[in-house]
Design brief:
CATH class of the largest domain: Alpha Beta
CATH topology of the largest domain: Glutamine Phosphoribosylpyrophosphate, subunit 1, domain 1
Number of helices: 27
Distance between the termini: 35 Å
Shape: globular
């Protein structure tokens, strides 16, 4: 895993481009402390910071093809690079290294865009073709690795693995997008292609971009319509499905454990990480290193469950006690590392630090298990709610308005979201679009400055990609639709984004065996009732690995990394929050309305209900991020 950057322009000279790319690479040195490189080919200057995982001694980048035509910078990991190498060698290609980068380079040179259907892995790359004078950008189908870009036909194209790196080029305007602030308050993230900055975009998962003659074309090469590509493997009986699922889980763990450096695993008390650790420990030479965060606060720490799993799997287990004081001490660094505002990811920051401190360069995470196997309440609630909608629509308008008004006046998190459901949702896709909202529309709009409120009010509360994604999921089964929404929104825009930023902050490559195109495509070709096991909590996953887990570790409810924020926010984090929500602080955020925000903070302090903590924290992180750009 690495950090890549580049500047393509027919108007800027090579020296100016090189200086800009150097600044971008310097800004993300922690993404690649092992090596660096910059090359210029005609109007293209490409750079990289390398974290060496495969063939550390020889896989230097930027990498050029033997004929000098193609130059590649690549961030990620190609898990089927050995198989592709054999196929390419049979076609006459000669390799100088054992790294996946060279395999990707030869594949792209031979098959072009068709390579993307053959490649299995997480990736964001840029390929310069010196003959056609074109640049190709691409992001993996499930959005594990990010790729940001700024393009103007009068200035050229700049791209990078990080937003902060892109801004460091000094060729990208630093201008906050008010619409992005509103979207963040709704969805806890700014979903691609939008970013927090007006003039910076992000490739969506499964997109490719081609620059030629000062023009940039963006299109999708993979969508969920292409997911069920292996229907010939459709199982007929649940027992047959479970056996095949176990085989495929073993296979995805095996390929994700490939590395020429040490590999470890995050371990919580839940089913997802427990299943991966159990499978991985059986395939690892020597004792697998596992990592868990622990807390003093009763009811939050999963230390006991993680220890049981570690003993059962025979891992070399490492724990770290995280306190509110420690979080408060690290907050300035955490905020500085954020590429965009986020109310999540602090657990990944500390778990990554623990893994890196114990000599691991690659770590496996259970991200994606909930999305694939139905681990969230949305899998239960949304299909039920959509069946209720026709009856709701038959109720007289006056009565509906009265009930929605009562829900909004009630003012709880649950009642406000329910009011948005009843007001705006007409089908399952619209329900799924609203499911992950952090602030309801009624709660969000007053937090915005009046001129911004007027600008965004017309957009409504739905997710920005609703129309496009609903079309993409046309005719998908109900639970499959919920799964796709959870993957494309919360998993990609929050979990995977934060995982990338906070693991790379510690020069650590984070891999997600559940977020694997081969596994996803196979699951999408199986009967829905098998995958989601008749609404049992992740029943299919549990049935596939139950023999590998200690009995007490097979949970019937969701468990995961959960930090004691409701307690810390009234204790060690209180000074930070008091300062963040102060009048002086809010005066530096012209995009927000100070009065309602300060009242929101005061209400949290007075209330004994802690369920609102995540909204308070998400808002505080937004304010802290925006102040990095205040005058």
């Amino acid at each position: 895993m690495c950090g890549i950057a580049g500047f393509i322009s027919t108007r800027e000279g090579s020296a100016s481009r090189r200086e800009a790319v150097q600044r971008m690479c310097d800004r993300m040195q922690y993404r690649g402390p092992d090596d660096s490189g910059i090359v210029t080919q005609q109007e293209a200057t490409l750079g990289i910071r390398r974290l060496a995982i495969f063939d550390p001694a020889n896989g230097r980048q930027p990498m050029r093809s033997p004929d000098g035509r193609h130059t590649l910078v690549f961030n990620g990991a190609i898990y089927n690079h050995r198989e592709l190498r054999v196929e390419l060698e049979a076609c006459g290609h000669v390799f100088r290294t054992r790294c996946d980068t060279e395999v990707l380079l030869h594949a792209l040179a031979r098959w072009g865009e068709a390579s993307l259907a053959r490649v299995r892995g997480m990736f964001a790359f840029a390929l310069w073709d010196d003959h056609d004078r074109t640049l190709t950008l691409a992001r993996d189908p499930l959005g594990i690795k990010p790729l940001y870009y700024h393009w103007r036909d009068d200035a050229g194209l700049l791209f990078s693995s990080e937003l902060a790196s892109l801004l460091a080029s000094k060729f990208v305007p630093v201008e906050i997008d008010p619409q992005a602030i509103s979207v963040y308050l709704s969805h806890l993230a700014v979903p691609a292609p939008q970013t927090i900055y007006r003039q910076v975009r992000c490739l969506r998962p499964g997109q490719i971009g081609v620059w030629r003659d000062n023009r940039l074309w963006i299109r999708s090469y993979w969508t969920y319509r292409q997911a069920p590509a292996e229907r010939s493997y459709r199982t007929q009986k649940y027992g047959e499905f479970v056996v095949e699922l176990r085989r495929r889980l073993e296979e995805t763990v095996r390929v994700h454990a490939q590395a020429d450096v040490s590999v470890g695993a995050f371990l919580s008390g839940g089913l997802d990480s427990g299943a991966l650790v159990a499978l991985l420990s059986r395939q690892t030479n020597g004792r697998l290193k596992t990592f868990t965060l622990a807390f003093r606060e009763k009811g939050f720490s999963e230390q006991a469950a993680a220890r049981r799993m570690a003993r059962h799997a025979g891992t070399a287990h490492h724990e770290e006690l995280i306190t509110g004081d420690r979080v408060a001490d690290k907050l300035p660094e955490i905020i500085r590392r954020m590429d965009q505002p986020t109310g999540d990811g602090i657990n990944t920051f500390f778990a990554s630090s623990l893994a890196a401190d114990n000599g691991v360069k690659v770590v496996v995470s259970g991200v994606g298990g909930d999305e694939l196997f139905g681990g969230y309440p949305s899998f239960r609630d949304l299909p039920r709610f959509v069946r209720f909608l026709p009856y709701w629509r038959s109720v007289p308008v006056k009565i509906r308005r009265h009930l929605v008004g009562w829900l909004r006046a009630h003012g709880t998190v649950r009642s406000l979201k329910l009011a948005d459901f009843l007001t705006h949702a007409r089908d399952l896709n619209e329900l799924a679009s609203l499911q992950r909202t952090v602030f309801s529309e009624a709660a969000r709009l007053p937090l915005l400055a009046p001129e911004i409120r007027r600008e965004v009010a017309r957009l409504g509360p739905m997710h920005p990609m609703l129309d496009e994604f609903a079309f993409e999921l046309h005719a998908a089964e109900p639970l499959r639709t919920v799964s796709a929404w959870e993957m494309r929104t919360y998993m990609t825009d929050v979990l995977l984004s934060d995982s990338d930023v906070f693991s790379m902050a510690h020069s650590l490559e984070l891999r997600t065996p559940f977020v694997d195109t081969s596994l996803v495509r196979w699951l999408w070709g199986q009967p829905e009732a098998f995958v989601f096991a008749s609404h049992r909590y992740k029943g299919a996953l549990r049935d596939a690995v139950i023999d590998l887990l200690p009995p007490a570790s097979v949970q019937g409810t969701k468990v995961g990394f959960t930090l004691p924020f409701p307690i810390w926010m009234r204790g060690p984090l209180r000074p930070f929050l008091d300062e963040t929500f102060s009048a002086v602080s809010l005066a530096r955020c012209p995009w927000l309305e100070p009065g309602p925000i300060r009242e929101f903070w005061r209400h949290f302090q007075r209330s004994t209900d802690t369920r609102n903590w995540s909204r308070v924290w998400s808002l505080a992180m937004l304010i802290a991020f925006l102040q990095r750009h205040s005058a």
